[in-house]
Amino acid sequence: MRKPLMMLTLAFALPAGAALWQGGDLARFFAASASSDDLLQGCTDVPEAVALATELRDRALRIERYMEALDTRKAELATAEAALRARATELRQQKSGIQSRRDTASQAVREDIDRLIAVYDQMKPAEAAAVLTNLPPDFAAEILMRVQPETGARIIAAVEPRQAALLTAQMGARSAPTD
């Protein structure tokens, strides 16, 4: 029992070892490679054998076409994947540029607001009150929230009481946490 098993092992191991040593493909040693003519040799008078050989040939052709279709599809997918990667890179670059411009614009707005607040800090309270009463209440409240506290208190004191109450309510609403 050991000797036939050893012979069988050698029959498969030697070609596989040779293929590995030569860097070849192992599948070619173990693949069936009979053509339909070889299969039918001596059996052309048996209709079942002819039908089986024809069916096997048809299946082989279908498998071959299917494999070609798979290879074509793989190539299409690889092309599409490369295009998607390129588009993703392009979109990341655009996003980075947009974020950079947005940050620059936000910084410019903050600097403008800081200058505006500095102007109101330097104005006399009565003059600042006259200007703030003509602004939208939410904008006026925002300015009052950002000026120095003493300056804000003097400006509110210079505003007529009804307008001061409205501005104070706007300031409170702005600083109240929203849940």
Shape: rod-shaped
Radius of gyration: 43 Å
Element pattern in H and E: HHHHHHHH
Number of strands: 0
Please work out how many helical segments DSSP would assign.
8
Q: Could you say which structural class the secondary elements and strand pairing correspond to? A: mainly alpha
Helix amount: over 70%
What is the end-to-end distance? Answer: 83 Å
Main beta-sheet strand count, sense and barrel state? none
Residue runs with pLDDT of under 50 for 5 or more positions:
none
% residues in beta strands:
under 5%
**Mean pLDDT across every amino acid position:** 83
Give the secondary structure arrangement, pairings included:
Layout: H1 2-22, H2 27-30, H3 36-40, H4 47-122, H5 125-132, H6 137-146, H7 149-158, H8 161-175
Keyword list:
single chain, 179 residues, mainly alpha, 8 helices, rod-shaped
Characterization of the model:
- With 179 residues, this protein is mainly α.
- Helix content is 83%, strand content 0%.
- It is built from eight helices and no strands.
- Helix 5 (125-132) packs across helix 7 and helix 6 (137-146) crosses helix 8 (161-175).
Care to give the gist of this entry?
The protein is mainly α and 179 residues long. Helix content is 83%, strand content 0%.
